[in-house]
Specification:
Strand order of the largest sheet: 1-3-2
Distance between the termini: 55 Å
Strand content: 15-25%
Number of strands: 5
């Protein structure tokens, strides 16, 4: 018995469809892009054929749709806070003077010191030389 493939989103451009596909695949979904090659060949056909269809198996529709809704909500929140800083881990809004995210606890303090970009490369080189 074959599983039905269902369209869960439509994208006007190939980059948007590919980004959607990659995000869903990173969460373990099986994703298909329909009409991507047609639009890659002639992008002006996008409106005529209804864009690029992002499709998943019918058993994954609900979870994949929920993930896309979360992504859209996060994007809308970030668009509403243009100029604000966001947590690099969870995407929550952070005040400019905050170094620790109140939502997830992530901190800029945990990021390696960017003042000396050569130190990591030097450490790696020393490891290779000493082997």
């Amino acid at each position: 018995m074959t599983e039905e493939i269902v369209t869960i989103a439509k994208c006007q451009s190939l980059p948007a469809a590919e980004a959607c596909k990659l995000r869903l695949e990173s969460e373990g979904f099986t994703v298909f892009l329909t009409d991507a090659e047609t639009i890659r060949t002639d992008w002006a056909l996008s409106n005529a054929i209804g864009g690029i269809k992002v499709q998943v198996p019918s058993t994954q529709v609900e979870a994949a749709t929920d993930l896309l809704k979360q992504i859209r909500q996060q994007h809308d929140l970030q668009a509403a806070h243009v100029g604000d800083d966001f947590c690099l881990s969870c995407g929550a809004v952070m005040l400019t003077d905050q170094s620790k995210c109140e939502a997830c606890g992530w901190s800029y303090d945990a990021v390696p010191d960017a003042a000396d970009p050569g130190s990591a490369a030097e450490d790696a080189a020393e490891e290779v030389i000493s082997e």
